[in-house]
């Protein structure tokens, strides 16, 4: 495409936005509301995914070693654990370390156990995939020198089901909102094109190609998506700034911390912008296609 032709298409698309002021306003408003909802859902879903990832990675199998096992037998057990194909790491924690951790988390009352420590030495096993935890735990329970395994069986399996369901629901909602935005833009452009159907017919009669007719409408849809994304980007960026400060100050530790403001907000802003431009262009493309009877 020649530069002069491209400039002509840009000018025509901008003129069309001005000529159809109220339709432009209606389209931009619809896109703004939809992209705002999409942006909020993306922020929520990305943080939920981060929380889920952190929780999944925190899942571990605590393998209690038999009290009668010797040091050599513990080494043999560790080698067996490390050879399991689904295991990522095996860390040893002595019963003294376990008691210290118990006193730290549960209170000084447990310091009485220091006189006669009843706890087990423990191998802390982490799997390559958190969802493999129950399967690996059952394998470990059958091994020699293992007294018991603890990984929160019912809670872990319920957690994985909840996380899987929430991710799927979030994806469905976002896809649904995107199709809604595309439908709104498409219908708005259709009304504009219907009002200019005679102009399109004349252009075709004088020999204009389908793409020559299509480009201004395609660019018009992209402009609608671009303009409609400005307010959602500003709202999401400012809203997340205050939400991040509020949550980060009230959530102890790093396990459930929200995603860091930068570069997360810039990535989301770029995604909202791209979504607006793409669905605007696609909505226009599909509308013009029907009128051109391709």
Give an overview of the whole structure.
There is one protein chain. With 294 residues, the protein is an alpha+beta fold. It has two domains: 3-55 and 158-292, no CATH class; 60-150, Alpha-Beta Plaits, CATH 3.30.70. The protein contains ten helices and four strands, in the order H-H-E-H-E-H-E-H-E-H-H-H-H-H. The chain has a four-stranded antiparallel β-sheet with strand order 2-3-1-4. Helix 2 crosses helix 10, helix 8 runs antiparallel to helix 10 (261-292) and helix 9 (230-250) runs antiparallel to helix 10. The longest helix has 43 residues, at 153-195. It starts with a helix and ends with a helix.
In short:
With 294 residues, the protein is an alpha+beta fold. It is built from 10 helices and 4 strands.
What attributes characterize this protein structure?
single chain; 294 residues; alpha+beta; Alpha-Beta Plaits; 2 domains; four-stranded antiparallel β-sheet; 10 helices; 4 strands; 72% helix
Number of strands: 4
Q: Find the structural class using helix and strand composition.
A: alpha+beta
Give the ordered list of helices and strands: HHEHEHEHEHHHHH
Summed over residues and divided by their number, the pLDDT gives a mean of 78
């Amino acid at each position: 495409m020649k530069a002069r032709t491209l400039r002509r298409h840009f000018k025509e698309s901008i003129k069309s936005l001005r000529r159809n002021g109220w339709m432009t306003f209606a389209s931009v408003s619809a896109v703004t509301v939809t992209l705002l909802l999409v942006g909020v859902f993306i922020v929520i879903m990305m943080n939920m995914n981060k929380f889920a990832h952190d929780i999944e990675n925190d899942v571990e199998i605590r393998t209690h070693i038999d009290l009668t096992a010797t040091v050599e037998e513990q080494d043999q057990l560790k080698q067996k654990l490390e050879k399991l194909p689904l295991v990522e790491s095996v860390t040893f924690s002595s019963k003294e370390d376990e008691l210290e951790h118990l006193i730290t988390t549960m209170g000084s009352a447990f310091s009485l156990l220091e006189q006669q420590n009843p706890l087990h030495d423990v191998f802390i096993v982490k799997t390559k995939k958190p969802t493999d935890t129950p399967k690996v735990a059952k394998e470990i329970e059958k091994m020699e020198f293992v007294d018991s395994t603890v990984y929160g069986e019912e809670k872990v399996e319920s957690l994985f089901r909840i996380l899987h369901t929430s991710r799927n629901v979030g994806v469905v909602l976002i896809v649904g909102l995107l199709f809604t935005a595309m439908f709104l833009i498409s219908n708005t452009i259709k009304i504009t094109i219907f009002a200019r159907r005679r102009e399109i017919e004349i252009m075709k009669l004088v020999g204009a190609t389908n793409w020559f007719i299509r480009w201004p409408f395609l660019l018009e849809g992209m402009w609608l998506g671009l303009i409609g994304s400005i307010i959602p980007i500003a709202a999401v960026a400012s809203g997340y700034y205050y939400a991040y400060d509020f949550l980060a100050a009230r959530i102890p530790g790093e396990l459930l911390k929200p995603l860091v403001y930068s570069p997360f907000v810039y990535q989301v802003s770029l995604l909202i912008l791209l979504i607006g431009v793409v669905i605007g262009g696609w909505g226009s493309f599909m509308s013009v296609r029907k009128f051109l009877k391709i």
